[in-house]
Amino acid sequence: MIDSTPPAGAADAFAVELHRTVDLLRSLSPARLAGLAEPVRTAAQEFADAAADAAGDVRRSLPVLPPRAVPDQLAVTGQDLLELAGSAGSAPVDAVLRQGVERLRALRRAT
């Protein structure tokens, strides 16, 4: 039976959705993943930008990787944002994480 209990906080919810989305993307055929590469790249860039903003760093463009690598790019940028949230614990970062949850769910629905 699948546990549908929502995670307690924004960071927990984001971590769950990130894991689910990355696992699903990694299981897709190369052709299907190629069709989703651009939306996944966009989400990864949004997460990288949010992490840079929250840390007070300069935003940097992510490299355009082959479709087979975009799930990993999403995983890394999402994890970076989660780590920052753990250290910052601010309301703006929580808001970004909540938006990220919706973004990840939309990516999963697109598959």
Question: What can be said about this structure in brief?
Answer:
The chain is mostly helical. The chain has helices spanning 10-27, 30-55, 70-88, 91-110.
Topology:
Layout: H1 10-27, H2 30-55, H3 70-88, H4 91-110
DSSP E strands, number: 0
How helical, in percent, are the residues?
A: over 70%
Compressed to H and E, one letter per element, the order equals HHHH
User: How would a crystallographer describe the biggest sheet?
Assistant: none
- Determine the mean pLDDT: 89
Report, as a whole number of angstroms, the end-to-end distance.
Answer: 23 Å
Percentage of residues in strands: under 5%
Q: What general outline do the C-alpha atoms trace?
A: globular
Uncertain residue ranges: 1-6
Global structural class:
mainly alpha
Helical segment count: 4
| Chain oligomer state | single chain
- Cα gyration radius (Å): 14 Å
Notes on the structure:
With 111 residues, the chain is mostly helical. It has 4 helices and no strands. The chain has helices at 10-27, 30-55, 70-88, 91-110. The longest helix is centred in the middle third of the chain and has 26 residues, at 30-55. The two termini are 23 Å apart. 31% of the residues are buried. The model is unreliable at 1-6 (pLDDT under 50).
